[in-house]
Amino acid sequence: xxxxxxxxxxxxxxxxxxRFRTRAGLVHAVSEVSFQLARxxxxxxxxxxxxxxxxxxxAIMGLLSTDxxxxxxxxxxxxxxxxxxxxxxxxxxRERRRMRGEDVAMIFQDPMSSLNPIYSVGSQIVxxxxxxxxxxxxxxxxEALRLLAELGIPNPGRILASYPHQLSGGTRQRVMIxxxxxxxxxxxxxxxxxxxxxxxxxxxxxxxLKRLQKETAMTVVFITHNLGVVAEVADRMIxxxxxxxxxxxxVRDVFRVPRMPxxxxxxxxxxxxxxxxxxGEPLEAIPGNVPSAMALPGGCSFHPRCRxxxxxxxxxxxxxxxxxxxxxxxxxxxxxEIG
Amino acid sequence: xxxxxxxxxxxxxxxxxxxxxxxxxxxVGHVHAVEDxxxxxxxxxxxxxxxxxxxxxxxxxxSVLRLIEPTSGAITFDGTDLLHxxxxxxxRFRRRAxxxxxxxxxxLDPRMTVAEAVSEPLIVQKLVASxxxxxxxxxxxxxxxxxxxxxxxxxxxxxxxxxRQRVGIARAxxxxxxxxxxxxxxxxxxxxxxxxxxxLLADLRRRLGLAMLFISHDIAVMAHLCDRIAVMYLGxxxxxxxxxxxxxxxxxxxxxxxxxxxxxxxxxxxxxxQLLEGDVPSPANPPSGCAFRTRCRFALPACAxxxxxxxxxxxxxxKACLRDDVF
Lengths: 339, 327
Fold this sequence. Notes:
Oligomer: heterodimer
Largest sheet of chain A: 8 strands, mixed
Low-confidence stretches of chain A: none
Strand order of the largest sheet of chain A: 6-7-8-3-9-10-12-11
Largest interface: A-B, 49 and 46 residues
Strand order of the largest sheet of chain B: 6-7-8-3-9-10-12-11
């Protein structure tokens, strides 16, 4: 085990690559993804279906093992609470289980399928607390009550006695957040946590996550397809397409001057309430389809849909992910000319 | 309201679903899905129906197509009483009014080819003389939704989400309807594909002169596509108005809260939003008086006693709120 140096990032993802062998073929889910997480920051990983954003989250969580159908390479170095840096991908099962919850916790889009329908919410939070801390059931129950109250859930006692199906979607997601936070992890990975919720409930959950982040200086990785959510919550963003990072940088900078044609078009294709299109004018749509991770186009994966395509370059050579401004990265052969 | 009579006119529509429990399926209550909804859609007009889950927007959409039977109220289509059609008349009505669903994968038969799916309504309605003519018409319809004839023999599993939705649209258009209910047609699609489908609907509407009831939870998409928007909450219409006016200056506290909750894709303008507290009450036991009052920061004691009527507060703008002093 290496010793943690000062200024060491909390998490260092280094050339993470994930392939799935399926009967239909090899799925290139994630290809050479590298990024670092600083303490207390909120990073958004943005992408559409098949972009590799969720697989990246699962890999950080140590939920992809190296000897299963998933072939994982690269490193996910985590500065753990107990001191020292560990590669999540190489941890023995036992240590990996301890890391989950204590160092990194995760919440998902659909809390209904993450909660067990036949146990009360209270017993599931108590179980999570006792997994990591040798405390008496009564202490764990008090902790569960305190967690729910801290999340601003009205009537926490009644919620603890309820079963998942008796709760609304928003309350179920709050319960998942309570379970995730029960061991005070330093990193929370939130995979589309508000996608299944109504917009007024989404606003509540986003406000809650922002408040918790501020109060506990927790580091948050927000995986989402919703650029509005990114603009609302994140400090830094990574845009993924076809399993690769295609653009990265501070949220304000990327929104102000997107460099990768994909990011540019995506931002322009959004109908927005703050700047309505002139009546009758079409939205700027991106032509074509989102590529399958089983049949990614050669060269730049975005080239078949890109209006800046140059044949012979974009369709044959994969452009490198290169710096284009302080703290900014872009993967495009033509970013200098297209501005 | 313009002088011409509307294409679709809905008056005091109500739909209550029975809740039955126990071994003898005893009636224990009702879900108040739609309560006293009145709205009109004119020829070539697109009306947006906005609301969160449980607001009753899809129930309205299915009721106006007679896919479910309303509990009470009146619906007329081009002057004909829709609720008292005989089977032959109902079949003729289906030529004039069609639906597009959110989940094109679930609404297409996985065993049918694209050509079979798109031509099925033509054959059911006996609108084509021969199979060869049906194929010509299918090619035409696919061209209308920007798909080449090479897709005719493919099956839904071979298509992307956006392509499946295009097939769903072509199928709905096959009988040359005047009116379409589009129920969240872009919501299940990837962001980069959503704009394609929204543009297609806007284009078809212009070229074919379609009237449309566009049901969605995404008020930004509606502001772009619809002429007017009606906002529903717990089965009732809270506000109706021309799209742009409604999103720029909402008149009802719920509309204002809904708009404020939409995440703004502009990181320069992060703002403290006006959060709505709590969850939507159960439609099996809605609050007395105004349905929104339990979450409304402007609620007065009077809001609990009467259901506020939907009344005109400016030309073309209607709201169901007692208070005129808050916006």
